[in-house]
Amino acid sequence: MLVTILATIAGCNLNQGTGEQMVNLEKVTDDPEEHLANLNKAISRNKQDGSLYKRRAKIFLKKGELDKALADIDEAIKLNKADMANLFLKAQVLRAKGDIARALPLALKAERNSFQSVALYVLLSDLYLQLKQPGNAAIYTKKALALAPKNEFALYYNGRVAEVTGDTAKAAANYKLAIKEAPEFAEARRELTGTLISQRKYEEARQQLDKALKLVPKDGLLWHYRGELYESVQKADSAIWSYNKAITFADSLQQTHYQVGQLLFARNDYTGAISHLEKAGKQYGNNIKYIATLASAYERTGENIKALEQYQRLLEVQPGYTAANYSIARLKAKLMRPVSTYVAEPVSADTLE
Question: Closest Cα to residue 292, out of 254, 329, 330, 284?
Fold first, then answer.
């Protein structure tokens, strides 16, 4: 979805500085492939026109062909170094590739050279959010809204900044304004859903979720939110089903693996719980409940060495945790003696509730 946002905001440029106005490709032709073919022909006839490479780079960005987009915008920059719109577009492409470190200085250079654009300010806000610098991000959402108070992307990122800083009321208000301007803005509906869930406004969240899923039925995070809504009404079966659906679309959602792992553990499906919890370690590795649940699941499945490692980890995160000390002593004794039929009761994650 990021590529879609970046490609879309590329067309809402309000450049008031130097350089060529950016082309809105949607107005050139309804068929991007036809436009691409025309640009290919034009470039073959005139390889010194930087604006042609820039326009083709925008098409490649929209198509998600980022390496081709980067090659074209580099050529455009080589042919016209004074056009700050080229730097802005390259920053967009690099952001789409996940290269924040290279994207940010290019975007800032474009701004320093009097390139004023809602899209540029939105991009800068996004980049600073990725760098976990909400204060700087807020500066640029403010600039974007000063240029275009009703721009849906500026409102959306203003909501993102508010949410990161803990102002969920302001976040929800901005998401709603963005949706008012662009009812099919799926990302805004998705973020609004998550914010409403955090506020425990479950019915309103459900309404937004249903609308968002009609727009993007294969969005993993939306299915995660569906699982959270089912959990809020204690429908564990439906929650697990929704979480598994989320994982089919986005296996990297660590919060989903964590949630479904906890539900499976509660059902005594320790093997299933382990399979999900192990995938949530990057995000939850310092979470007490996560470590205790994983340790207990390992012990209940006979993986005592792994269980011992997790209990020791538990002590590192929370020194003096008595239950973990008992479990470590018990496991060390168990590992040192001959195998027997004795089964000890491991520490339960329930003690953390």
Answer: 284
- CA distances (Å), 185 to each of 102, 181, 316, 325, in order? 28, 9, 44, 51
Tell whether the model's pLDDT for residue 28 goes beyond 80.
no
Least confident of 6-10, 83-87, 280-284: 6-10
Q: Compute the distance between CA of residue 65 and CA of residue 14 in angstroms, rounded to an integer.
A: 25
Which pLDDT belongs to residue 238? Answer: 98
DSSP 12: G
Q: Chain-wide mean pLDDT for the chain?
A: 89
176 CB-contact burial (10 Å; exposed 0-12 / middle 13-18 / buried 19+): middle
Domains, the chain, ordered by start: 1-116 (1.25.40.10), 285-353 (no CATH)
Residue 255: closest CA among 232, 230, 276? 276
More confident residue, 18 or 76: 76
Burial 239-264 (b: 16+ CB within 10 A, else e): bbbbbebbbebeeebbbbbbbbbbbb
| Entry pTM | 0.82
CA-to-CA distance for 225 and 218, rounded, in angstroms? 13
* Residues near 4 by beta carbon (within 8 Å), at least 6 away in sequence: 62
Whole-angstrom CA distances from 270 to 98, 112, 311 are 36, 56, 16
Q: 130 near 96, Cβ under 8 Å?
A: no
Taken in order 290, 296, 298, 301, the sign of the CA dihedral is negative
Nearby residues of 260 by Cβ (< 8 Å), 6 or more positions away: 227, 239, 240, 243, 244, 247, 276
**Alpha carbons 71 and 106: distance in angstroms, whole number:** 16
* Span 151-194, pLDDT tens digits: 999 999 999 999 999 999 999 999 999 999 999 999 999 999 99
- Say yes or no to pLDDT of 34 above 80: yes
Residue 310 vs residues 55, 74, 295: alpha-carbon distances, Å: 54, 49, 5
